[in-house]
User: Which sequence fits this backbone?
């Protein structure tokens, strides 16, 4: 206490010795020092916010913000209230706390609704509705656990059981998926979702499950996909893969020849998905082979007789007097039967599914540009010989076959580069702005340090003068 008292007395005596200008300079320097120190401390201790949840509905965002206020966790709303940011150091802890309470869930509840609902006074209809709602939520949660899926909604149709077999109707399910930007589901994943849904609902067959994405595209199921007027998802996927493969071959080839952003390629293929099983049987008439041969020979010996006597009925019937004339008679009879086997060839042909019947390729090629006398860019179309060479290159890349009606068209048109130039200009501006923001942080730190240094220097000069 004596030390503090002596220090205070010394400061008071020094203050009384200062002139008015010196006192004013001391006050201003100290004020500037304190203001700079406060700004620096507030900036340095400001928490860095990280994303907690995104793509939220208004109900989910309201529920989360209400709970964050109760937990006294600071937050920021962005993207029109669809994204919530919290301090980076509290992201994982906050997610765990909210997940334990079933948030975000948009007010949804799985089978835990039966824990919070009294069964007393509940009718069988209410029980069935609650069970259906809980099952829908549980299925949606399971589907949302996939990395490619942001959100899922499941709609179930669970008909009441009828005591009559002829009046029974099968349950049905519809699943709506919201995929992450730039991602798509493989056919194995789609089939997995369909089997998961069918296996979770009693008596639900996989053909009664329909899956669509946020754009309304049918990914699986439904009666329409089995109709002859629609391609199944696997067929569409095969067609897309073949077209993307051929497009990539042509695009990379033209990229090396023409340079970036100088050609646009589109490929359309017609595939034959008819599955044909044909059995053919061939016979070779020239290739005869003896299969079996049967020979039979018979011989008999006896006397040669001549009928003689008076003419009449008795003699004609052989009952007249017999007279033997000449040598005894000999009779030989021979029979043969030959069976030939003709060469036969049986072939069973199974025609493959997904054979390419026709390929159509459309290529738009940009020309060249030169600077005119006035400094403006002038479009220079490519020559006919160059277009023919490019057409030949594209034909070789896609395996052109004239006999099946393939078509390849290469057109030279000027590209509209205004959008790309504007995009590049915006990118340069944003990059420049990011650089300015990055450098401004260090400039502010340098200014604060300079103000602190000058303030301390002024105070020291005042105290030592």
Assistant:
């Amino acid at each position: 206490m004596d030390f503090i008292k002596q220090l205070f007395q010394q400061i008071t005596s020094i203050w009384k010795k200062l002139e008015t200008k010196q006192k004013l300079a001391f006050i201003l320097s100290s004020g500037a020092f304190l203001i700079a120190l406060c700004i620096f401390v507030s900036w340095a201790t400001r928490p860095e916010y990280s994303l907690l949840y995104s793509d939220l509905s208004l109900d989910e965002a309201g529920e989360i913000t209400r709970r964050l206020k109760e937990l006294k966790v600071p937050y920021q709303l962005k993207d029109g209230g669809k994204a919530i940011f919290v301090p980076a150091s509290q992201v994982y802890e906050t997610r765990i706390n909210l997940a334990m309470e079933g948030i975000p869930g948009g007010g949804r509840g799985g089978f835990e609704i039966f824990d919070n609902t009294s069964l007393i006074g509940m009718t069988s209809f209410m029980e069935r509705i609650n069970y259906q709602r809980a099952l829908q939520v549980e299925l949606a949660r399971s589907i949302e656990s996939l990395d490619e899926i942001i959100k899922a909604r499941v709609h179930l149709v669970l008909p009441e059981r009828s005591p009559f077999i002829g009046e029974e109707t099968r349950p049905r399910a519809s699943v709506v998926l919201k995929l992450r930007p730039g991602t798509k589901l493989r056919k194995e994943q789609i089939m997995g979702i369909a089997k998961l849904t069918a296996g979770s609902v009693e008596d639900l067959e996989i053909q009664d499950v329909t899956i669509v994405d946020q754009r309304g595209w049918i990914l699986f199921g439904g009666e329409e996909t089995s109709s002859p007027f629609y391609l199944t998802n696997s067929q569409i996927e095969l067609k897309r893969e073949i077209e993307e493969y051929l497009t990539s071959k042509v695009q990379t080839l033209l990229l090396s020849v023409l340079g970036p952003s100088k050609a646009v390629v589109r490929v359309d293929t017609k595939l034959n998905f008819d599955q044909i099983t044909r059995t053919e049987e061939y016979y070779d008439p020239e290739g005869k082979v003896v299969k079996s041969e049967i020979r039979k020979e018979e011989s008999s010996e006896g006397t040669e007789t001549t009928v003689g006597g008076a003419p009449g009925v008795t003699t004609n019937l052989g009952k007249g007097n017999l007279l033997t004339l000449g040598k005894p008679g000999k009779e030989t009879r021979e029979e043969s039967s030959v069976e030939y086997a003709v060469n036969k060839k049986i072939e069973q042909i199974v025609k493959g599914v997904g054979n390419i019947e026709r390929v159509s390729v459309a290529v738009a090629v940009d020309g060249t540009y030169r600077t005119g006398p006035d400094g403006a860019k002038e479009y220079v179309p490519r020559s006919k010989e160059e277009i023919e060479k490019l057409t030949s290159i594209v034909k070789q890349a896609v395996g052109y076959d004239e006999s099946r009606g393939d078509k390849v068209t290469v057109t030279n048109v000027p590209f509209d580069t205004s959008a790309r130039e504007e995009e590049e200009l915006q990118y340069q501006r944003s990059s420049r702005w990011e650089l300015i923001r990055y450098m401004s942080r260090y400039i502010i730190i340098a200014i604060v340090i300079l103000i602190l240094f000058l303030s301390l220097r002024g105070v020291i000069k005042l105290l030592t003068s």
